[in-house]
Amino acid sequence: MKALSTLILLLVLIPTSAFAVRIKDIAAFDGVRDNQLIGYGLVVGLNGTGDTDQTKFPVQSLVSALERSGITINRNEITVKNIAAVMVTASLPPFAKQGNRLDVLVSSLGDSKSLAGGTLLMAPLKGADQQVYAVAQGAVLTNSFSYGGQAASAVKNHPTAGTVPGGALVERELPNVLANHNALRLNLRQSDFTTASRVAAAVNEHFRGGVASLTDPGSVQITLPDAYRGRTVEFVAELERLEVNPDVEARVVMNERTGTIVMGENVRISTVAVSHGNLTVVVKESPRVSQPPALSSGTTKVVPNTSLKVTEERASLSLIREGANLGDVVRALNALGVTPRDLIGIMQAIKAAGALNAELTVI
Fold first, then answer.
1. Which of 65, 81, 84, 166 could covalently link to 101 via disulfide, CB atoms 3.0 to 4.6 Å apart?
2. 182-187-213 Cα angle (round to 5)
3. Listed range (67-71, 270-274, 312-316) with the worst mean pLDDT
4. How many CA atoms lie within 13 A of 152 on its CB side?
5. Bigger pLDDT: 196 or 67?
6. Helix (H, G, I), strand (E, B), or coil: what is residue 188?
7. How far apart, in Å, are the Cα atoms of 157 and each of 107, 152, 207?
């Protein structure tokens, strides 16, 4: 009897905990985010697959780099095919420290055919404030190749873009947005009134006080409790582990190009009857050749022969009752034997009939 009671209790609790997610998975603190970095650089060491003479700026960059190394050379005397001008991009994570390494993406700017086997020279990476936050350098990995001649060529993957894993070193740190702050703002990744209210309630219940307050559906204002003054990091770590049940909008997303349909669990349909049938028309051309007898004055003619076949599948009527959930909708439509592309037309018709209680999005 005790084992049965335990089993029933587990069955009751499992659905509730299955939908709960951590706050850190649905929200982030204001200012704690990645920052985009961008820079210009040169890739050298290419096997004749670099920029051609039609692209002027790679050679100008090479002349400038040589002059900084104490080598003076005339711009018109340089003709090389083993260098390529590239743009270098990276993301600077929050709280990155000096000396941390970042992965960078290298993309060709000119008419280079391939960056395979090249080496990126030192390229400063700047943020939106035009300050240098990292410096990138290293071997470029493309996982591709490009070979060709005058009459044929072979290309695998995309050879004009590659990565330098751990190729950038952080030189400047971002300000610590959590230091010496007694008030924080928690931003939801998807604004929702119900979810924001549940987050605030969970925080206040856990810390036993008016810690969280709401000003809009996209953020929750957090005030540090007196016990966590000067211990902001510990407070954030404790808060992020709290679990809530986020609310999602009833929505049906359809992709006509791929025939993909995604429906949320809150999608409901009013009472509606759906009938679906296909009409197939097959036109087949089988031309025949009319050959005159030998030594006659006739000519060879092509006589058309057309066959027409019309097939209409038997359509069945399926009733979807009011308040049907996602499982009921899928079972009822599968009973009609419809394909995903047919289902797109059916869902649009149900929405036009006013029976679909959800937002319909076509991408």
1. 166
2. 55
3. 312-316
4. 1
5. 196
6. strand
7. 14, 17, 53
Task: Output the pTM of the full model.
Answer: 0.70
What is the per-residue DSSP string for 302-319? EEP-EEEEEEEPPPEEEE
Q: CB-based contacts of 62: which residues, under 8 Å, 6+ apart?
A: 42, 78, 80, 83
Q: 10 Å Cβ neighbour count for 1?
A: 5
Which letter does DSSP use for residue 326 in this model?
H
Query: Could you please report the per-residue DSSP string of 2-50?
Result: HHHHHHHHHHHHHHHHHS-EEGGGTEEETT-S-EEEEEEEEEE--SS-S
CA angle (169, 170, 171) in 5-degree steps: 110
Helix 232-240 to helix 193-207 angle (10° resolution) is: 120
Identify residue 132 by its one-letter amino acid code: V
C-alpha span between 262 and 154 (Å, rounded): 39
What token pair was written down for 83?
């260098």
Got the DSSP string for 76-90?
Answer: GG---SSEEEEEEEE
C-beta neighbour count of 266 within 10 angstroms: 14
pLDDT at 2: 42
Per the CB < 8 A criterion, the answer to whether 37 and 92 are in contact is yes
Mean pLDDT of 126-150: 86
Opening angle at CA 40, ends 34 and 100, nearest 5: 40
* Sheet with strand 27-29: strands edge to edge: 27-29, 183-188, 219-223, 212-216
Residue 152 has pLDDT above 80, yes or no: no
